[in-house]
Amino acid sequence: MARTMITGGKAVLPTGAQQVDILIENEKIAGIGQASSLAQTDNWIDAKGQIVLPGLIDMHVHFLDRFMGTISLHDFFTGTRAAACGGVTTIIDFANQKKGGSLADAIEHKRSEADGHVVIDYGLHAEITDPTPAVMKEVRSIIKAGVPSFKVYTIYEGMMVDDGALLALFEQTSRGGGLVIVHAENNFIADRLRREYLREGKTGAMYHALSKPNIVEAEAIGRIAYLAGHLKAPFYIVHMSTREGRQIMQHCRHKGQAAFAETCTHYLCLTDSVYRRRDGINYIISPPLRKQEDIEALWEGLHEGTISVVSTDDASFSVESKRMGKDSFDKVPNGMAGVELRLPVMFSEGVLKRGLSLERMVELTSTNPARLFGLFPQKGVIQVGSDADLVILDPQKKVKLGMKTTHMVTDFCSLEGLRVTGYPVMTLSRGKVIVENGKFVGRQGEGRFLHRKIDFNAIRNVR
Amino acid sequence: MARTMITGGKAVLPTGAQQVDILIENEKIAGIGQASSLAQTDNWIDAKGQIVLPGLIDMHVHFLDRFMGTISLHDFFTGTRAAACGGVTTIIDFANQKKGGSLADAIEHKRSEADGHVVIDYGLHAEITDPTPAVMKEVRSIIKAGVPSFKVYTIYEGMMVDDGALLALFEQTSRGGGLVIVHAENNFIADRLRREYLREGKTGAMYHALSKPNIVEAEAIGRIAYLAGHLKAPFYIVHMSTREGRQIMQHCRHKGQAAFAETCTHYLCLTDSVYRRRDGINYIISPPLRKQEDIEALWEGLHEGTISVVSTDDASFSVESKRMGKDSFDKVPNGMAGVELRLPVMFSEGVLKRGLSLERMVELTSTNPARLFGLFPQKGVIQVGSDADLVILDPQKKVKLGMKTTHMVTDFCSLEGLRVTGYPVMTLSRGKVIVENGKFVGRQGEGRFLHRKIDFNAIRNVR
Amino acid sequence: MARTMITGGKAVLPTGAQQVDILIENEKIAGIGQASSLAQTDNWIDAKGQIVLPGLIDMHVHFLDRFMGTISLHDFFTGTRAAACGGVTTIIDFANQKKGGSLADAIEHKRSEADGHVVIDYGLHAEITDPTPAVMKEVRSIIKAGVPSFKVYTIYEGMMVDDGALLALFEQTSRGGGLVIVHAENNFIADRLRREYLREGKTGAMYHALSKPNIVEAEAIGRIAYLAGHLKAPFYIVHMSTREGRQIMQHCRHKGQAAFAETCTHYLCLTDSVYRRRDGINYIISPPLRKQEDIEALWEGLHEGTISVVSTDDASFSVESKRMGKDSFDKVPNGMAGVELRLPVMFSEGVLKRGLSLERMVELTSTNPARLFGLFPQKGVIQVGSDADLVILDPQKKVKLGMKTTHMVTDFCSLEGLRVTGYPVMTLSRGKVIVENGKFVGRQGEGRFLHRKIDFNAIRNVR
Amino acid sequence: MARTMITGGKAVLPTGAQQVDILIENEKIAGIGQASSLAQTDNWIDAKGQIVLPGLIDMHVHFLDRFMGTISLHDFFTGTRAAACGGVTTIIDFANQKKGGSLADAIEHKRSEADGHVVIDYGLHAEITDPTPAVMKEVRSIIKAGVPSFKVYTIYEGMMVDDGALLALFEQTSRGGGLVIVHAENNFIADRLRREYLREGKTGAMYHALSKPNIVEAEAIGRIAYLAGHLKAPFYIVHMSTREGRQIMQHCRHKGQAAFAETCTHYLCLTDSVYRRRDGINYIISPPLRKQEDIEALWEGLHEGTISVVSTDDASFSVESKRMGKDSFDKVPNGMAGVELRLPVMFSEGVLKRGLSLERMVELTSTNPARLFGLFPQKGVIQVGSDADLVILDPQKKVKLGMKTTHMVTDFCSLEGLRVTGYPVMTLSRGKVIVENGKFVGRQGEGRFLHRKIDFNAIRNVR
User: Fold this and answer.
1) Which residues of A touch D254 (CB under 8 A)?
2) Domains of chain D with bracketed CATH
3) In this complex, do B219 and A196 lie within 8 Å of one another by their Cβ atoms?
4) Alpha-carbon distance A292 to A307, whole Å?
5) Of B357, B385, B461, the CB nearest to C20
6) How far is it, in rounded angstroms, from Cα B228 to Cα D256?
7) Which of A321, A383, B40, D84 has the least C-beta neighbours within 10 A?
8) pLDDT band at D373 (very low <50, low <70, confident <90, very high)
9) DSSP state of B55
10) pLDDT value at position B2?
11) Is B385 in the C-facing interface, judged by CB distances under 8 Å?
12) Could you give the C-alpha distances from C350 to C270, C294, C397, in angstroms and in order?
C-alpha cells in the first residue's frame, strides 16, 4: 500500500493555516499531524516554505462550447490540463439541453465528450434551454442521478427561460434538493439598448458594455431573488459583476435567504476601459467588464461573505472567431479563457494586496464550491478521509501572466502582462502528482465523473 | 351674473368637514362662509342634513372599449351619465395607440368619440401598446399637449411593453413631467399557468384566478418600482389587488419613492369565491378578485396612505360577450361595470363600517386623483376659485344596489343586492345641477376636455 | 357687527397660496372669496403685494423662566409682544412642577404669571420634574383640563426623569390622549465628558459643545422612540439638532410610529464655530449648535417631513447672567432669545434660499404645531370659522436682524447682522390688529388661555 | 514519550463528525487519521459507539461568588470538579473590581483563589464595578496581560456602569483588542416596577419576574448595541433571555456589527411558571425565566446564528441563603447552580429533540467561546496541535438529572427530574483522563491559568 507524506508545508486546514504534515494513502488523506506522529512512508514530498491548499474547484467552465456558430478552443483534455496547471483539481461544466431534448440526453452526450479525456475529476450542471413540461418533470430524477444543479439564462433569445419557467423550476428544485444557477441579465433592457445602438451605427466594443448597464444585471438578480424567495428555493448567481448585485445579495442574506453569488477572476481585475483598446472585442463577455467601483464592491462582497465563490467562466474563443464581430459588437462570441489564472490572481491580488486571508481564499476557490455543489467533504478541504486533491503554492514565486507562461490553448490572454507573486508548483489529484513545476505529468482520462448531492442545511452556512 | 348658494350642508373642506355655505358664480366656487357673510343671491340649494363633497373623479374608466373582439356597453354619453348619477364629475379615459400609430392620433380619435357626448368634464391618458422609438420621442410633446399620463400593460401579448420599453418610457416621463400608470401583472408566470390549466382541461372561471396568483401582480409591481426608482420616475399602479402589493408600496414610500397605487371598488368588497358561482365568468377581471386577507390589507393601505386612490376600472362588457368564454376562462373579456357605485360603497363600507374618515374618503376619490393627474386645484377640492363640481350626499338614504337602481347600461351588476346607507342626491358640474334625486337633468356634450399638467413636487405629498 | 376685509393679498390657504380676500367677523374668519362675492364692510385692510399667513404658533418658549439661579428677561408681556411683532399669534409655555408638587399647582401658578399680561393667546405644557406616583395618577385629569402635553428632560440632575418614569408616563398619555415632549439628551454620557473636560481644565465655551457630541442627543432619541414604541405612545422631540436624530425619526416614521420632532431657528443657521468667538458663551444652549452637515440634514428633514415643526426655544438670559460661566462652561445658563426671529428667517433662508414652499413654511410654523398640540382648526389655518389670527408678510422688505430692529428685551441677538428679505408688517389676533408696521398697537392682557385637546388620529398625518 | 490513542469513536472535527482516531502526545492532539496511519502507541482508549467532542468551555461561572451578603457554594475546586464531570475542560470566571480598586488587584486576588485549586484550565474576565478614569486607563494593559474581556452590569446600584462609562470602556476595548461583556438590564425600569410592587405588598417570587418584563432586557441590549456600534466596538450580551433580544441581535448582525450573545441552559428549558411553585424563590435569577415563546425564539437564535454561545451562569447559592428573601423577592440572592448540566441538556434537548446538529452543539458550547474569548485554536477544536481537551459522550446513556446524579455541591437542582439521553462518560484535560464513568480521577490544582488574546478579524465570523 503506497503512502505519500507531504512535509514541511503550511497547510490550510479548516481551522486555519498550520505547519503540519499530511499523509496520503489510497487516494485519500489518511493522517494529519507531525510526520513523527504518523505512519511511516518512503515517499516524501518536501513542501518546506510552501503552502498546501485543497485543490481548487472551478464550477464554471465551458469546454467544447458551441456558441454563436463557433466552438471554444479548450476541449476536456486541454481544458482540464490547463486547469490542473493552475492548481485546479475539479471542474464542473455544463450539459446543454437541446431544443426539445431531455436533460438525461444532454448529460450523456457531455459525458461522452469528457470521459476518457479529463485529467482531473469533474461534474456537470444540467443546462435548461427549453423548459418544456417534460423537462420540468425530469428535474427530480436528474438530481437523484447526481446532477443536482441547473443552469438557466434569463437572456439570449432561444436559450433563455422566462419568469414562468423559472418559477416552475424553483418549485422542482426546492422540493427535490436542487440548486438553480442563473446567468442573470434582463434580456429586454439589453435588447432594446443593443438595437438602439446598432440603429445609430454605434457598433464598437464599448457599445457592448453600454448596451448592458449595471441595471441589466441588477434587475435580473432582484427578480430571481424574489421568485426564489417566494418558494424558498436556493439560488446561485453566476459571474456577478456589479455593485448593485452585491447590495441585493446582502439584502437577501439579511432576510435569511439561501442566496449565493460567484464572481470571476476578470471582474476583479479589469474595467470596461479595455473596450476602448484596439483589441477591445477580445474582451467581450457577458456581463461586460465594469467600473473600478464595481471591482471594489466585489472585493468587499468577497470579504463580507455576500459573494461566496470565485470561478473563471472559461470560454476560450479564438481571436479569429472574435473577429466575426469586428464590425458589430453583437456578432462577437462572448467569452474569454481563464481557467488557469485564478489561483495566482487570488493570491497575489487578493491575499497579498487586499488583505484577504489565506483561509478565505481557500473558501472562495475550493471549500465553498464544494459545499454548494455537493462535493464536500470529498473535495474542498484538507481533512482525513477527503480525496487527496492538493495543490502546493510557492508564495515567493514571481510570474508574469500571459501567453508565454500559460498552458491554456488560446491565442489571447486577458491578463497578459499582469505580474503576480505566488504560483502553484505542484498539483495532486487523488494523491497522484499530475503537475510538477509547471509541467503536466498526469495522464489523459484519469479524471472521473462526480455524482453530487447537495445538502440544503449545510449550504445555508456558506458565506 | 347668476349666483347659487348651497346652504345648510356639512361641506368637506381641505381642513375637515364643516357646517358652511358655498357661493357659486361663473361655474366656480366664489365664496365660502356663512351665507350672511357672503354676497346675496336668489338661487338657493338647501343641503340641510346633507354632506357636500367635491365631485368625484374616476381616473380609470373604459368607455367604448374594444377588447377581445367585443366592445363595452358604456359609450361616452351613457358612461358619463351613469358616472354623474354616482356623484362623479370628472372621468379620465384611455386613448389607445394603434399598432405603429402615434399617440397624437390616438388622442384625437378618442376625443372625437368623447367630445359632444360627455356630460361631465373628462381627460385622457395616452395608452402605449407599441413602444416604437418614434412613440418614445413623441412622449414629451404629448405631455405638453395636456396628456401627461401614460398607461402601459406588462401583460397581454400584443399590447404589453417589455422592461426595455418601460425603462425608456420612464426616462421620457421623469424628465418631461409625465406619470406612467401601469397594469402590473407578470405575463410569463400567468401565461405558463394558464397554458398548464388549459392543457389539463381546467377551464372554469376559478382557474382564471388560479392562473394569476398574487405573485403575478406582486412581482410585476416590484419590478416596475425598481426600474422607476432607478430613474427616479414617479409611477402609479392601477387596480392593485394584493396584500403583497401593499407591502411593496410601503417599502417604496419608506424609501421616499414617488410610488402610487389605486385599488378599485370591487377589490374592496368581493372575494374570489364568486368564481365558484354559476355566473362566475361575469366576475372575470384582471387582476382577479382575491382573498379576504387581501381585502383587509387594501383597506389598511387606504388608511395608512400607501394606496392613494379608489377608482372603478369600469369596463362594461355584456353578459352575452362574457359567455364567449363559457367553455374556457381565457376567452372571457375581462372587465365589469362600476362607474356609478363607488361613492355609496366608499361611504357605506368605508366611512360607516370601517372608520374611514369622511376627509380620507374625499382624498381617495377626488382630491388625490386631482393632485396626481394634474387637475388640482381646478378639481378635487372645495375651495374658492375651484370649479363648482360638487356632489351632495344624503348620509341617511338607504339603497339596495343592483340592476333596479343603477343608471349604468349594463345587464349585470357585480354588487347586486348590496345594501348601502348614504347615497348621492345631487350632482353639480361647474355650478350646474346635472343630477337631482337620482335623475339625470344635464345635457349631452356639456362636458369639456381637460388639459392637465402634473406638478412633481406636489404629488410627492399625496398619500 | 364689525367686519374687516383683507383684500388684495396672496393668502396661504390649506390647498395652496391664492389671490383671495378674507372677511373677518366676530374674531373669526367669516368668509373667503373675492370681495365682491362676500358681504359688505367698511373696514378694509389693503394687502396688495403682500402674503397673508395664518398667525404663527411658537410651542416652545420659556418666559419668566428660572434656570441655574437666574431668570429670563422676557416676561409674559414683553415676550408675547416680541412674539407678536414677529408674526406669532399663539405661544405655548411650560408649567414647571415643583419638587413634590402637583401639576395642577404648577399650571395654576404659571397662569397667574401669564393671565392679564399676554398680548396673544397662549397655552401651557405641564413640565414634570418629579415623577412621583401621585403625579402619574394626575396626568389624565390634567389632559382633560386642557393641558394634554407633558414636557420631560432626560438630562439635568434634579429635573430629569429616568427610563422607568418615562415608561410610566407614556402609559398614562397613550391611554389618556396626551403627548410627551422630550428634551432628549443622554445625561450620563454628557456628564462623564463634562467632568472629564473640567478635570483637564478645559472650561471654554467650545467644551460645552464637545461635552455633548451628537451621540448624546441621538442615543436619547433612539431610546425614547423605543420606549414610546413599546406602548404605542406618541412622542415629540424638542429642539432636535443632529443628523443622527433625523435618521432615527425617519426610521420611526417608516415603521408608522407617531414620532414627531421640532428643530429651532438657530439650529438651522448657526454652527458650533461661534463657540470659538470671544462672546462664545452667549451661544451656550442645549443641545449645542452643531456642524454644517447637521444644518443640511435638518433642512432635509423639514423638506421630507421627518421634522414637523420649527420653534424658537426662546430663553432670554442676559449677557450678564451668561457671564456667570465665563470661567467654566457648565455655569452658563443655557438659552437664547429668538421668539421674534422665526418668520423672517424661515421665509428668507427657507423659502427664498432653500426652495421651501410657502405652504411648507406655514405647516412648519403654524399648522403643524396647531395640529400636534390640539389647537386645530381654531388656530393654524386660514379657513372659515377659524380664529382670525393672521399675519401679513411683505415679501420684498429687507431687514438687517439684530438689536436695532428687534422688539425682544434682550441685550444679545444670536442672529445679529443677518440680512433677510421678507418681513411681517401686520399681525392680527382674533381679528384685531395688534402690530402694524413694526409697532405694537395691541393691549397687555388681551390674550387668552387656550384649552387644548389632541386628536390622536389627526396627528398621525402630520409631517 | 507517552502517547494515547482514542479509537473507534465518532469525532466532531471542524468539518463535521467523522469516524476517526486521535493520537495524543505531550498534552496535545498529535495526529488525526485511522490508527493504522498514525504512529504506534500502547495506550488505547476505546470510544467505540461514542462521540468524541472538544472539551466544553463555560465562559460564565461564578465560583466563590459573594453577592447580596452570601457566598456561592462552589469554590474553584468543587466548581471545576463538577464542571469536569459535565464534560467541561475550561471555565472563565470573573475578577470583580473592588470599589476604587484596580483591575490588576482584582485579577491577582481571584487567581489566588483559583490557582492550586482548579482541576481544569481556566481564565478570568475583568469585572468593572467602579469605572474611574484610572480604571479606564488600566484597560489596555489588562488586555495585554491576557485578560481581554471586561464584564459590566447596567443594573444593580453600586455595581452598574452608566452609559458614559460604557462608552468610555468601548473606546478603550475597541482600540486595544478587548471584548465588553454585558449583563444587560435597564436598571431604572426594573427599579421603578420593583418599588411599585413592594409598595403594593406584592412580594412573591413571581413579582421578581413581573418587575423585569422583557423590555427591561431588550431596551438595554438595544442601547448597548447603539453605543458599541458608534465606536465599532465588539460586544457580547450574557444570559440573553428574550425574543426581543434575539431580534435586536439579528438586526445588529445584518448591519455587520460584531455583536454576540449567549444564552444559558435554564433559559432554554424553564419558564416563569416555576415562580408560582412553593419553592419559587429558588429559581430567582436575573434576567428572570421567561415564556415558552421566548424559549422558542432562543432556540431559533441558536439555529440561525444570532446567539453564538450557551453557558451556565453557575451561581450556586444555597436554599438557605435563598430563603433570606422568603418575604420579599428583592432579598433573594440571584443565581442557580448548573455548571455540570449543559452538555446533557444540549445533546438531549437540542440535538435529539430539536434537530440541532452535533456540529452546531459543539460550536455553541466549545468552539465559539474559544474563538470569542481568545482561546482558539488551543481550545475548542479537535485539530492537530490543539490541547488534548476532550470529552467522550455516550449517546445512548440515559440519566435522570437531579441531586442524586450531580457532582455539584448544591442543595437544589433547577432541572431536578429531567430525563436526558446522552451523557459524558470520560473527560480528558490536556491528554490526561480526569473523569471516568462519572467519577473524578483528576487532581486538585492541575488546571492552569490561560492568557488569552482576542482576534478581532476572526470573531467577526462567529455565529
Assistant:
1) 254
2) 55-376 (3.20.20.140)
3) no
4) 17
5) B385
6) 29
7) B40
8) very high
9) P
10) 81
11) yes
12) 14, 15, 16
Record: contact B162-A215, CB cut-off 8 A: no
| pTM of the entire predicted model | 0.95
Residues B225, B235: contact at Cβ < 8 Å? yes
* Nearest-Cα residue of chain D relative to residue C188: D164
Mutant choice from C1, C38, C41, C358 vs B, greatest count of B C-beta within 10 A: C38
Q: Per-residue pLDDT tens for D112-164?
A: 999 999 999 999 999 999 999 999 999 999 999 999 999 999 999 999 999 99
Which residues on D lie below 8 Å from C168 (Cβ)?
Answer: 192
Note whether C16 contacts B377, CB cutoff 8 Å. Answer: yes
Is D165's Cβ below 8 Å from some Cβ in C? yes
Q: Which grid cell sits at C147?
A: 393641558
How many beta carbons lie within 10 A of that of residue B309, not counting itself?
Answer: 29
Phi/psi at D357 (nearest 5 deg)? -75, 155
Nearest chain D residue (CA) to C200: D133
Instruction: Spell out which residues of chain D touch residue A39, defining contact as CB-CB under 8 Å.
Output: 36-39
Q: How far is CA C30 from CA B258, C3, C5, in A?
A: 38, 9, 10
> What amino acid is encoded at D335 in this protein?
G
Contacting partners of chain D (3+ CB pairs under 8 A):
A, C
Q: How many helices (H) and strands (E) does chain B have?
A: 15, 21
C-alpha cell recorded at residue D321: 441563603
Tell me the one-letter amino acid at D274.
V
> Quick check: C118 and C445 in contact, CB under 8 A?
yes
- Give residue for cell 438689536: C403
Instruction: Read off the C-alpha cell for B197.
Output: 390549466
Residues from chain B contacting residue C256 (CB–CB below 8 Å): 304
SS3 state of residue B333 = coil
C219 inside 8 A of chain D by CB: yes
Q: How far apart are the C-alpha atoms of A103 and A106, rounded to whole Å?
A: 5
Q: Do chains D and A touch (3 or more CB pairs under 8 A)?
A: yes
pLDDT, averaged across chain A:
97
Query: What tens digit of pLDDT does each residue of B355-395 get?
Result: 999 999 999 999 999 999 999 999 999 999 999 999 999 99
Q: Backbone dihedral region of D88: left (phi > 0), alpha (psi from -120 to 50 degrees) or beta? A: beta
Scanning C177-322, the segments in alpha helix (DSSP H) are: 187-199, 205-210, 214-230, 243-254, 292-304, 319-322
Given a cut of 60, whether residue C1 has pLDDT beyond it is no
Cα C305 from Cα C316, distance rounded (Å) = 29
State the amino acid at position A186 in one-letter form: N
3-state helix, strand, coil in chain D (%, to 5): 35, 25, 40
Looking at the complex, report in whole angstroms how far the Cα of residue B392 sits from the nearest Cα belonging to chain A.
Answer: 47
Peptide bond into C369 cis (omega under 30): no
Q: Which residues contact C242 (CB under 8 A, 6 or more apart)?
A: C214, C217, C218, C287, C290, C294, C297
* Residue B1: pLDDT over 70: no
The answer to whether C447 and C77 are in contact (CB under 8 A) is no
- Mean pLDDT over C237-255 rounds to 96
> Which pLDDT band, with edges at 50, 70 and 90, does B443 fall under?
very high
Interface of B with A in 3-42 (CB under 8 A): none
Quote the cell numbers at residue A362: 481557500
| Alpha carbons B54 and B51: distance in angstroms, whole number | 10
Q: Are A222 and B222 in contact (CB < 8 Å)?
A: yes
pLDDT of residue D85: 98
Test A215 with B199 for CB contact under 8 angstroms.
Answer: no
Under an 8 A CB cutoff, do C381 and B357 touch?
Answer: no
Subunit contact B357:C457, Cβ cutoff 8 A: yes
Report yes or no: B200 and B234 within 8 Å, Cβ to Cβ: no
Identify whether C287 is preceded by a cis peptide bond (ω within 30 of 0). Answer: yes
ipTM of the complex, rounded to two decimals: 0.95
Residue C86 has pLDDT above 60, yes or no: yes
Q: Give mean pLDDT, residues B300-322.
A: 96
